[in-house]
Design brief:
With 98 residues, the protein is mainly β. It has one domain. It is built from no helices and nine strands. Strands 2-3-4-5-6 form a five-stranded antiparallel beta sheet, with no helix packed on it. Strands 1-9-8-7 form a four-stranded mixed beta sheet, with no helix packed on it. A hairpin with a 4-residue loop joins strand 2 and strand 3.
Amino acid sequence: MYLNHRFWDNMVEDIKINKDKNYILVKFWRDGIVAEDKIEKIRNKLYVYYNYTGYGRNYSPALIEDVEKFDLMEKGNLFYIKLKVKNQEERIYCYEKA
């Protein structure tokens, strides 16, 4: 199992999972502003909607392909997203609450 805590460089205010609709709603804490973004599974792809600010970048999703399953766990001041991608080891992404 692989643990990664640098998937985003932002603190997380809240994460909510909706398995029926295949998405995880993420509230990021950036520069004193809470921005709500979405991690959404469409077929076998996980779209990470992240509003890049500054540097002239447009709003566009990062894409993780061949997703077999994902889950969310909350413990204390941390959120964990467990992600299994086809032909890869299961990964756990850890976020600290803002």
